[in-house]
Write a structure and sequence with these properties.
By secondary structure, this protein is of the alpha+beta class. It has helices spanning about 1-15, 20-25, 60-75, 205-210, 255-265, and strands at about 35, 40-45, 50-55, 80-85, 90-95, 120, 125-130, 140, 145-150, 155-160, 165, 180-185, 195-205, 230, 235, 250, 290. The chain is globular, with a radius of gyration of 22 Å.
C-alpha cells in the first residue's frame, strides 16, 4: 500500500506539472484575450469556393491600405481573376490586361504611391519573440501581424509569412498602387522583406487559395485563360451591413496567454514528441481565430 500511495502521489504531481496544450490554453482564455476585426480594415475576397477574410495593415502601409479601401469600395476587382499560382510561392490577382486592351479604370484611387517597405519602429506596439532569426535582429508581432525590427536603424517591417498580402510592383520601388496583389501560399519568402510593400494577411480561408491548380507558364501564370479563378467580389467589410459580415475574433498577440500559446508550439510536450525543439520560427506561429461566443 505504501508503494501504491507513492505511485499515486507521483501521478498527481506529474499531472499537475504537465504543461497545457495549445487547445487547452485557448479553451481557458478570457474575452479580453481576443479582439474583433475592424470592418474598415477587413477585406472579403469571394470566389466560387467561398470567402477569404483578409485583415489590412494600415500601421505598416497606410497609403496602400487607403488606396485598397477605395478600390474595394468602387468594385475594382469584381469580375477580374486570380491569374497566377506559383508552386510554393504565391497566388496573384488583379487586372491582367491582354494585348490590345485598355487597363481597367481605377476611379478615385491614386495611380502612384510611395514605397512602404518599412516604417519607424517608434510608436509600433511590438511584442518581441525570444527566438533567433536569420533575417532580422528582432522578430515578434505587432497588432497580430508577424513583424521584425532593427533597433540600430530604428525601423520595423512586416515579415513575409504564409498568408501575407502584398502589393506587386515593377523594378522601381514606388511602382505599386495596390491594384495588383499577391498572397503567399508557400514557404515564407523572407528575402522579400523590405523589398516590397506588404498590406495585410489572410486570417481565414487561405485553403481556398493554396489548393488552386499551379500555373504551367513562367512564374506560375496560367497559360489558358480558362484556368484562371474568377473573383466574384472583393469587398470592404465596412461596406456591408453588420449582419452580412463574417463574425470573427483574433487572438491578441500582446498578452501572457499568447506567450503561453507560442511556448506550447515552441516546445511540444505531448506524448508523441520525445524532444522539445527549444525554438520556433516567426512564420511558424499562426495566430488563432474563432467565432465569437454568444
Amino acid at each position: 500500500s505504501i508503494a501504491s500511495g507513492s505511485l499515486a502521489a507521483q501521478a498527481t504531481q506529474d499531472t499537475a506539472a504537465k504543461p497545457k496544450s495549445t487547445q487547452e490554453l485557448l479553451d481557458a482564455s478570457q474575452p479580453s484575450d481576443w479582439r474583433s476585426l475592424d470592418p474598415d480594415n477587413t477585406l472579403y475576397l469571394d470566389v466560387a469556393g467561398g470567402r477569404v477574410v483578409i485583415e489590412l495593415a494600415p500601421q505598416f502601409a497606410p497609403a496602400h491600405v487607403d488606396n485598397i479601401r477605395t478600390l474595394a469600395r468602387e468594385g475594382f476587382w469584381n469580375g477580374l481573376t486570380l491569374y497566377r499560382s506559383q508552386d510554393n510561392f504565391v497566388v496573384q490577382f488583379g487586372d491582367l490586361t491582354e494585348e490590345g486592351q485598355a487597363p481597367r479604370p481605377i476611379g478615385k484611387a491614386r495611380a502612384t504611391l510611395p514605397a512602404e517597405f518599412e516604417r519607424p519602429a517608434s510608436g509600433l506596439p511590438f511584442h518581441r519573440l525570444p527566438d533567433r532569426d536569420g533575417w532580422a535582429a528582432q522578430t515578434g508581432f505587432a497588432d497580430g501581424f508577424p513583424a521584425a525590427r532593427d533597433s540600430a536603424t530604428g525601423t520595423a517591417w512586416m515579415a513575409h509569412c504564409y498568408g501575407t498580402l502584398g502589393a506587386g510592383r515593377d523594378t522601381a520601388a514606388d511602382s505599386s498602387n495596390g491594384t495588383e496583389l499577391y498572397i503567399v501560399t508557400g514557404q515564407s519568402p523572407r528575402q522579400l522583406d523590405r523589398n516590397i510593400t506588404q498590406v495585410g494577411r489572410v486570417v481565414q480561408g487561405i485553403e481556398l487559395l493554396s489548393v488552386l491548380p499551379r500555373g504551367t507558364g513562367p512564374l506560375g501564370f496560367y497559360e489558358d485563360p480558362a484556368q484562371r479563378t474568377p473573383i466574384k467580389a472583393i469587398t470592404l467589410a465596412a461596406s456591408l451591413p453588420a449582419q452580412e459580415r463574417v463574425a470573427l475574433e483574433v487572438l491578441r498577440t500582446d498578452t501572457p496567454l499568447f506567450d503561453a500559446v507560442v511556448e506550447s508550439r515552441r516546445n511540444r510536450r505531448d506524448d508523441w514528441y520525445k524532444r522539445p525543439a527549444g525554438h520556433i520560427d516567426l512564420c511558424n506561429i499562426s495566430v488563432p481565430t474563432r467565432t465569437p461566443k454568444p
